[in-house]
Automatic annotation (TrEMBL):
GO terms for molecular function: RNA binding. GO terms for biological process: spliceosomal complex assembly. This is Crooked neck pre-mRNA splicing factor 1. InterPro entries: HAT (IPR003107), HAT_Syf1_CNRKL1_C (IPR055430), Syf1-like (IPR045075), TPR-like_helical_dom_sf (IPR011990). Residues 81-336, 376-501 form the Pre-mRNA-splicing factor Syf1/CRNKL1-like C-terminal HAT-repeats domain. It holds the Pfam family HAT_Syf1_CNRKL1_C. Residues 628-649 are annotated as: Disordered. It comes from Chelonoidis abingdonii. The lineage of its organism: Eukaryota, Metazoa, Chordata, Craniata, Vertebrata.
Length: 649
């Protein structure tokens, strides 16, 4: 065995001038463009020279080009084309065409049988079937198609097979092919149109119905329902069309059903009435609400609008499904203000079930929270009462005030027992209520009014006494007024008078004095007038040191009105002397930062019996007298008659 040693490379450094592939291609192109001398002219004189010329021409133009580029679509011979690996369609087609011209059909079939196994075999399948059909070999062409369909080819291949059968009026065979075709390509629409085209309308409808069942609600196809609806429209089945559109619009998302909605609108405009157009508007609004609640599931206002829409148009199952979706969106924050709108979803749900769906629940479905809503408990109790389950209603309200006592719950429970005339229960509830909120004056008043209605005035008076004895009250003036009105209704005037005295020990408000005076006046006797005047006298003395001069003025004006109606001239004159003078004054204003903010004018009242203001009153009287004298002097100077008399004298 001989071994050949390669010579060692002495210099491995890169060359100074690098030759790139681009440079090589450019130089080769430049050489092609060089002008070469034309070949010498050759005259062919005999057949031998002609054959020699053809041989050289074939070698230069054909075989050398094939050696340079194996993909050139030149076919020097059948064997050479087949030896190139069956990678190009054109040579094979040329070979088969040549074989067909020579009537070599079996040879052509052998070539196609070899060609259909290549990666580009789908193109050979078309030509193979076409050849068999052109030869009139229908059975052979069908056999080739069957072999082709086993590969589960593209959609066009199936349609070619179907069209082949239709050309020979084999409709049943075409239907069988469609049945196989939809298992792989699921193009139900073309299958249905095939049946419709051949007037098999019942079969076409069954195909559409099978397609709807095949896709189900999870993979609904908009184009399928549009085609189904248009088919029924062509058959004049307008009610079927509406059912199809509504079924699809209720289940397909809005963003995927634009074409569906558009076709539904066109259909209703063509064949529908006012009701149909309204249904379209409802469907459009339903789509809008679906988009809103998907974008923000906690937008409860959008849920309310959506529910009002479906309640007016949809069946109970659909409405219930929307309610379940709405209440599933629980507020993420455990704060009551975020739960108010959500709770109304439950309320509306319960009312719908009771009024529309006629469903009765045994207990409320309240979520567990650190807070509660009194309205929910009250509505549930009212529901149980409507169902004639009074023990359940009482149990619910008792549970509510036990777990989460609130004013509304107590009031609602008491109102229920009042309507039932269970007054003993009302008393117990009021006691619990006042233990819970002893400062609530309204509760004390209502409790006392209940006892008054029942005729137990002593108990009512005791309740009032307990109420005014509380250290803290939210509206004490209302409570005292109610107590006083109670004693007046009972005609206990001495007790009423004592109440006024006790109230004046706590407050010296001008309205209390005026009310006291009006009470004394209500007797209608001479003694009553005297008592009323004494109250005004006492009130005026008490309020001399009052800083609120407007309240003192209010008292004097009320006294003056009393004297004008019932008093003598002497009494009227006396009250007039007590009325203050209204004086305009100025005072300095201060800003929030303590700087000067200018001056403002205001009115002050100066009472004549106030000793501290006597010097100011004298000064004011002198100023008024001086101003009056000045006005008189100006009037005399402006009198023209007086000037004439002086000139004559």
């Amino acid at each position: 065995m001989k071994f050949f040693l390669l010579p060692k490379v002495k210099n491995k450094a890169p060359a100074e001038v690098q030759i790139t592939a681009e440079q090589l291609l450019r130089e080769a192109k430049e050489r092609e463009l060089e002008l070469l001398p034309p070949p010498p002219q050759q005259k062919i004189t005999d057949e031998e020279e002609l054959n020699d010329y053809k041989l050289r021409k074939r070698k230069v133009n054909l075989e050398d080009n094939i050696k340079k580029n194996r993909t050139v679509s030149l076919v020097p011979s059948n064997e050479r084309a087949l030896a190139r690996g069956l990678r190009n369609v054109t040579p094979l087609a040329e070979v088969c065409r040549m074989e067909m011209k020579k009537r070599q059909v079996n040879h052509a079939r052998q070539i196609w049988d070899r060609a259909i196994t290549t990666p580009q075999g789908h193109q050979f399948w078309y030509k193979y079937t076409y050849m068999e059909e052109m030869l009139g070999n229908v059975a052979g062409a069908r056999q080739v198609f069957e072999r082709w369909m086993e590969w589960q080819p593209e959609e066009q291949a199936w349609h070619s097979y179907i069209n082949f059968e239709l050309r020979y009026k084999e409709v049943e065979r075409a239907r069988t092919i469609y049945e196989r075709y939809i298992l792989f390509r699921t193009n139900w629409i073309k299958y249905a149109r095939f049946e419709e085209k051949h007037s098999y309308f019942a079969h076409a409808r069954k195909v559409y119905e099978r397609a709807v069942e095949f896709f189900g609600e999870e993979h609904m196809n908009e184009h399928l329902f549009v085609a189904f609806a248009k088919f029924e429209e062509n058959q004049k089945e307008f009610e079927r069309v509406r059912v199809i559109y509504k079924y699809a619009l209720d289940r397909i998302p809005k963003q995927e059903a634009q074409e569906l909605f558009k076709n539904y609108t066109i259909f209703e405009k063509k064949f529908g009435d006012r009701r149909g157009i309204e249904d379209i508007i409802v469907s459009k609004r339903r789509f809008q609400y679906e988009e809103e609640v998907k974008a923000n599931p906690h937008n409860y206002d959008a849920w309310f609008d959506y529910l009002r829409l479906v309640e007016s148009d949809a069946d109970p199952d659909t409405v219930r499904e929307v309610y379940e979706r709405a209440i599933a969106n629980v507020p993420p924050i455990q704060e009551k203000r975020h739960w108010k709108r959500y709770i109304y979803l439950w309320i509306n749900y319960a009312l719908y079930e009771e009024l529309e769906a006629k469903v009765k629940h045994e207990s409320p479905l309240f979520p567990y929270l650190a807070f509660t809503f009194a309205k929910m408990w009250l509505l549930y109790a009212q529901f149980e009462i409507r169902q004639k389950n009074l023990p359940f209603a009482r149990r619910a309200l008792g549970t509510s005030i036990g777990k989460c006592p609130k004013n509304k719950l107590f009031k609602g429970y008491i109102e229920l027992e009042l309507q039932l005339r269970e007054f003993d229960r009302c008393r117990k509830l009021y006691e619990k209520f006042l233990e819970f909120t002893p400062e609530n004056c309204t509760s004390w008043i209502k409790f006392a009014e209940l006892e008054t209605i029942l005729g137990d005035t002593d108990r009512a008076r005791a309740i009032y006494e307990l109420a005014i004895g509380q250290p803290r009250l939210d509206m004490p003036e209302v409570l005292w007024k109610s107590y006083i009105d109670f004693e007046i209704e009972q005609e206990e005037y001495e007790k009423t008078r004592n109440l006024y005295r006790r109230l004046l020990q706590r407050t010296q408000h001008v309205k209390v004095w005026i009310s006291f005076a009006q009470f004394e006046l209500s007797g209608g006797k001479e003694e009553s007038l005297l008592r009323c005047r004494q109250v005004y006298e006492e009130a005026n003395k008490t309020m001399r040191n009052c800083e609120e001069k407007e309240e003192r003025l209010m008292l004097l004006e009320s006294w003056r009105n009393f004297e004008e109606e019932f008093g003598t001239d002497c009494n009227k004159e006396r009250v007039e002397k007590l009325m203050p003078d209204k004086v305009k004054k100025r005072r300095k204003l201060k800003a929030e930062d303590g700087s000067d903010a200018g001056w403002e004018e205001y009115y002050d009242y100066i009472f004549p019996e106030d000793a501290a203001n006597q010097p100011n009153l004298k000064l004011l009287a002198m100023a008024k007298l001086w101003k009056k004298q000045q006005q008189e002097n100006e009037a005399e100077e402006m009198d023209p008659d007086k000037d004439i008399d002086e000139s004559e004298s």
